[in-house]
From TrEMBL:
<comment type="similarity">
    <text>Belongs to the peptidase S10 family.</text>
</comment>
<protein>
    <submittedName>
        <fullName>Serine carboxypeptidase-like 2 isoform X2</fullName>
    </submittedName>
</protein>
<feature type="signal peptide">
    <location>
        <begin position="1"/>
        <end position="25"/>
    </location>
</feature>
<keyword id="KW-0732">Signal</keyword>
<dbReference type="InterPro" id="IPR001563">
    <property type="entry name" value="Peptidase_S10"/>
</dbReference>
<dbReference type="Pfam" id="PF00450">
    <property type="entry name" value="Peptidase_S10"/>
</dbReference>
<dbReference type="InterPro" id="IPR029058">
    <property type="entry name" value="AB_hydrolase_fold"/>
</dbReference>
Length: 474
């Protein structure tokens, strides 16, 4: 296989002198993290070990990456260690932490003006693995830049910085150097995760210290192209009954199976795509089954002529009081709102040891990042990592329209590895939770049945089975 041209060795290791300088610098680093024993919103001391902190990376350490580390509740001395990179780019890893894979979740009640409460999550991955939730790239979550130029980032630069972060974190936590290591992420994380995994593999081959016991990577609904949209969205929408037979057949003919880039001179295709976009409007792309929450309408519904309506005045009064009746969370947007109110609370940021003066407002997904998507297509990384024998788990929510499971299955098939354990059910709590198959390159693909609004939920037991190379997914 032709060697990838986008996998350079880290420049800091160009010669022995720079390596010695780097090792000496690392030896002078102080512990970056602080233990958190109590969290606002959670009653009593935390029943798990949480550490938060910053690690400086890049030139002059002008990039300060924030992390939250949660130790495995099982056997942290030998259980796998996972680093989590969220999507976006620019989404904070606090979202998955409190949205399904961490040990606590926010109580699923809509915001009522008080601090959202935290409750234990029985399905947390940390029952069987330790996780570093990293806010990457710079500008995501609580991570920040000390200089304006350092706020600029890209797919490759963010991956380099995440690799530097891991090395420095392991230097500060030498007890985890021998733990099996996995890189993990979701959605746009499908771009930096395989790049970072490749960088770690390269570093191990080059003898870079500390050596990382890399075993593989885990990805959920992964994007494989740094720009553009998956071409399989239209076929998926048809399969799920979102568009008619006639429109689908016309789309196939007029657009010739190409829905990502539309030729403006192709008037029939353009017309059909407008019809498609109208039909999938007001549907949650991440899970087409769940409700979409809309902000309250600002269009006056006047009960009398002139002036503001009674409804509008009541809405403004409730906004002033910032108090509403608590009701069960119905959509992802409402859950993100809970995380937003919790993460921006002063007492919360103090408990997490956040450098408050450096970040301003915490944003779930910072879409204004000065970020360059320069990685192209990620599939060659998967192919290269497969030749090196790394294990991988690729999972897809079966009702996700953003990156449909048929899109993921298409690029997996393009790797042309034989199936060694064919399509079968996997069971969670006595119920079929999805379907899975395993390939000869140690890649496991799984669908996750859309049972609720949790985009990040995935069975900790299934993750444990894959990371320990067992085949009983019951």
């Amino acid at each position: 296989m032709e060697k990838l041209q986008v996998l350079p060795r880290h420049p800091i290791f160009c010669d022995l002198f720079l390596l010695l300088v780097y090792v000496q610098a690392c030896s002078n680093l102080a512990m970056a993290g602080s233990i958190v024993k109590f969290l606002p919103g959670f009653e009593g001391p935390l029943p798990f070990e949480l550490e938060t902190g910053y690690i400086g990376v890049g030139e002059s350490e002008d990039v300060q990456l924030f992390y939250a580390f949660i130790k495995s509740e099982s056997n942290p001395q030998s259980d796998p260690l996972i680093i989590w990179l969220d999507g976006g780019p620019g989404c904070s890893s606090f979202i998955p932490l409190f949205f399904g894979i961490g040990p606590v979740i926010l109580e699923p009640l809509s915001f009522d003006g008080t601090l959202p409460k935290l409750v234990l999550n029985p399905s947390t991955w940390t029952k069987v693995v330790s996780i570093i939730f990293l806010d990457s790239p710079v500008g995501s979550g609580f991570s920040y830049a000390k200089a304006a130029q350092a706020s600029q980032s890209s797919d490759f630069q963010a991956s380099d910085q995440a690799y530097e972060f891991i090395r420095k974190w392991l230097h500060d936590h030498p007890e985890y150097k021998s733990n099996p290591f996995y890189v993990s992420g979701i959605s746009y994380g499908g771009i930096p995760v395989p790049i970072l995994t490749q960088l770690i593999s390269n570093g191990n081959e080059d003898g870079i210290e500390p050596r990382i016991d890399l075993k593989g990577y885990i990805l959920g609904n992964p994007v494989t192209k740094a720009s553009g949209i998956p071409n399989n969205r239209v076929p998926f929408a048809y399969r799920m009954g979102l568009i008619s037979d006639e429109l689908y057949e016309s789309l196939k003919v007029s657009c010739k199976g190409e829905y990502e880039i539309i030729d403006p001179s192709n008037l029939v295709c353009s017309k059909n795509m407008r019809a498609y976009n109208e039909l999938v409007r007001n549907i949650d792309d991440q899970n087409i089954l769940i409700p979409v929450c809309h902000p309250p309408s600002r269009v006056p519904n006047k009960l009398f002529t002139g002036g503001r309506s009674i409804i509008q005045m009541l809405h403004e009064k409730f906004e002033e009081l910032d108090v509403r009746e608590s009701t069960p969370v119905k959509c992802i947007a409402e859950w993100i709102t809970l995380v937003d109110h919790w993460a921006n609370n002063k007492s919360v940021q103090e408990a997490l040891h956040v450098r408050r003066e450096t970040i301003g407002q915490w944003i779930a997904c910072n879409v204004t990042l000065p970020y360059t998507k320069n990685a192209g297509i990620a599939v060659p990384y998967h192919a290269n990592l497969s030749t090196k024998g790394y294990r991988s788990l690729i999972y897809s929510g079966d009702h996700d329209l953003t990156v449909p499971h048929i899109e993921t299955q298409a690029w997996i098939r393009s790797l042309r590895y034989p199936i060694i354990d064919d399509w079968r059910q996997w069971i969670h709590q006595g119920q079929v939770a999805g379907y899975t198959r395993t390939y000869a390159n140690k890649m496991t693909f799984a669908t996750v049945k859309a049972r609720n609004s949790c985009f990040y939920c995935f069975s900790a037991k299934f993750v444990h089975m894959v990371t320990t190379n067992k085949k009983n997914y019951a």
